[in-house]
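Record 1 of the preview.
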Amino acid sequence: MFLVQAELHRPDGGTLPSGAVETVARVDQVEHVSVHSDTQPYPVLALYTRARSHLAAVAVAVDAWREARAQPEFDGWRVVRVRAIRIGAEAKAEGHGDWAG
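->
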């Protein structure tokens, strides 16, 4: 399992749309979604994915972003940075846990 965090920005400083979690949670391989609106300098959309590799986790995040961008409430938003980390017992056993991205 991987945690993927996407920092998002909107030029007018708007807040993430209220339906962000529901929109992104529909994407295949997304286990859980959370929004961190109070992070600085940008809000963060966090995706817990069932992906088995870093590349697959980022691909899930790209799919999720495409799904979100198809919604009118995401007009003007852009991705600033994406980071992914393997999490859970599997990560500990393999000695992983550092951010990549």
